[in-house]
Specification:
With 242 residues, this protein is an alpha+beta fold. The chain is 24% helix and 20% strand. Strands 1, 2, 3, 6, 7 and 8 form a 6-stranded mixed beta sheet that branches. It has a 3-stranded antiparallel beta sheet with strand order 4-5-9, with no helix packed on it.
Length: 242
């Protein structure tokens, strides 16, 4: 078993082949799709070389993307186990998410020191979050899975792909829209808010709404009927002998 290291890395993998400045690297590599990890050289090289990492996180934010619904941010975090749920949830912090990632290192501007960067691996969303978004981070639920992902000798690189699957070990709740500002980094971003209530439509509004739809449909049918009559009359005139 190898020794584990904590290291600060840039979010967005920069391959070892890049030797220019960071500004000259224009690819978006924040997230890496697990389904195509072996198809894109920028990820496959790091993956097959065993450059796997784990990104611990309190959670992540995701915005409601449902069409027609108000855009509301949600904080997604790991759900508590049965042992934790027996305690006081308000006083105890929730467990950390362990997110599977890939890392690489390069020498920017051909400098002597290495520059480290990493990408978050994503999978299809599980039933716990697919109503909110169609993708989610690849989560490692147990210490055994973390060990298998990090220890390059435990499993062959291709065999570790089986660890990347949708997980339901998460909970979420709505938070304030202040999270949309990059200038705000405070506990206020994690405070739970009340979800927006659906506005009740009174009987009078329903009546006029239905009436308007009926009138619109009648007008459309009348217009179609008029067009058909005009076409029919024109065809008859064309076929009539002089």
């Amino acid at each position: 078993m190898g020794q584990r290291y904590f290291r600060s890395m840039r979010w967005g993998l920069v391959p070892s082949s890049h030797t220019k400045s960071l500004k000259e690297f224009n690819l978006s590599t924040h997230n890496c799709c697990s389904e195509t990890i072996l198809e894109r050289p920028i990820y496959s090289r790091a993956f097959l070389k065993g450059q796997r990492c784990v990104i611990p996180a309190d959670g992540f934010f995701e915005w409601n993307s449902t069409k027609g619904a108000e855009k509301i941010p949600y904080f997604v975090h790991k759900s508590r186990g049965k042992e934790d749920k027996d305690g006081n949830e308000e006083d105890s912090p929730h467990p950390l998410l362990m997110i599977a990632g890939l890392y690489d290192r390069c020498r920017l501007n051909n400098e002597d020191s290495f520059f480290y960067s990493a990408s978050v691996i994503t999978v299809s969303a599980s039933s716990s979050i697919n109503w909110l978004h169609h993708r989610m981070p690849a989560l490692l639920e147990t210490e055994a899975e973390v060990q298998q992902w990090l220890h390059t000798g435990a499993l062959k690189s291709r065999d570790t792909l089986s660890l990347l699957s949708p997980r339901v070990c998460i909970d979420l709740y709505p938070v304030s829209k202040v999270v949309n500002s990059v200038h705000i980094n405070s506990p206020a971003c994690l405070e739970k808010t009340e979800p927006p209530k659906k506005r009740k439509v009174n009987t009078l509004e329903k009546f006029f709404s239905k009436k308007q739809k009926t009138e619109t449909t009648d007008e459309a049918n009348l217009a179609k009927s008029s067009i058909k009559e005009e076409v029919s009359t024109e065809d008859t005139n064309r076929r009539s002998p002089p």
